[in-house]
Design brief:
The chain contains five helices and seven strands. With 199 residues, the protein is of the alpha+beta class. It has a seven-stranded antiparallel sheet. The longest helix has 14 residues, at 35-48.
């Protein structure tokens, strides 16, 4: 497993694998149930409802209400005003700044470590791991992963609450924001609504 993880940067993250040290019972107790089927459903929605990211939010919310995940919340819409990244220890580490299309108002900063891990609006936490942060192309709703984020892109950022078991005391002992180098305590996404941009 370690060898495969060390090889991923050389593969440009182009690998899919499943590895387990135990049997089927252990695997069933450690995976997020229905994830592959749900990912397929989300893919269909994104393909069939292609278009402006603000229009796709309603069908996404409807789908997520039937899942283990929280309902998607609009965090920010604007353009990528700055983005810098570097490969450090095999990780793509960077920071992005998104500002309103007209350049006014507060800016959203995103910390990246292969994925979007922390979003701050005007310096205040708007979303953090273990909740999910995703960015969509504003015009097409195509998801933009961290390695494809570029200066000037017009984007919409969504936050999605993680499954409840990731918020348990045991899980947060393993995956708190501090584990990723952020000096903050975890606050559930739905409790940060006042720090989200009005759509």
């Amino acid at each position: 497993m370690k060898l495969l993880a060390e090889s991923l940067p050389d593969l440009s993250s182009g690998a899919v694998f499943l590895a387990t040290g135990g049997g089927g019972k252990q695997l069933k107790s450690s995976v997020v149930p229905g994830t592959v089927s749900f990912a397929t459903e989300i893919g269909r929605i994104l393909r069939r409802k292609r278009g402006n990211a603000q229009r796709i939010l309603a069908p996404l919310r409807e789908a997520f209400t039937r899942s283990l995940y929280g309902v998607p919340r609009h965090l920010f819409t604007g353009k990528v005003a700055d983005y810098s990244s570097a490969i450090i220890g095999g990780y793509d580490i960077g920071k992005a700044v998104i500002e309103a299309f007209d350049g006014s108002g507060p800016k959203l900063e995103i910390d990246v470590k292969n994925e979007y891990l922390l979003a701050r609006l005007d310096g205040q936490v708007a979303a953090s791991v273990p909740d999910l942060i995703t960015i969509l192309d504003f015009e097409t709703s195509t998801p933009i992963n961290a390695e494809r984020l570029r200066y000037g892109q017009r984007v919409t950022m969504l936050g999605i609450g993680c499954p409840a078991f990731y918020r348990s005391k045991q899980a947060l002992a393993r995956v708190p924001p501090q584990r990723f180098g952020f000096d903050i305590d975890y606050t559930p996404l739905e409790n940060l609504g006042t720090r989200h941009q009005t759509p």
